[in-house]
Give the backbone structure.
Amino acid sequence: MYMFFFMMIFNLMALSLVRKHYLMSLIMLEFIFITLFNMFYLYLNFFNFEYSLGLIYLILGVVESSLGLSLLVFLVRKTTYMYVNSFNLC
C-alpha cells in the first residue's frame, strides 16, 4: 500500500518538475491515473465490492487521455510548438 503512495508522490514531483514539455505532462498525468486506478482496485478488492466502478473509472481515463492527445495535436498544428512555456493561455 505504501508503494502506491510513493508512486503518487514521485508522479506529482515529476509532473511539477517536467512540466515544460506538453507530452511529458500528459504522460505524467497518465501515470497518476494508473496509480490511482491501482489504489482504487485494491480498495474494491479488499472490501469485496463490485468492479463496475473501476470500469467506469477506466472509461473516464480513456476519455481524458484522448482529449489530452487531441488537444496536443490541435496545439501543435496551430502553433507548431510543443512546449508549455510558449503557450499564451492567459
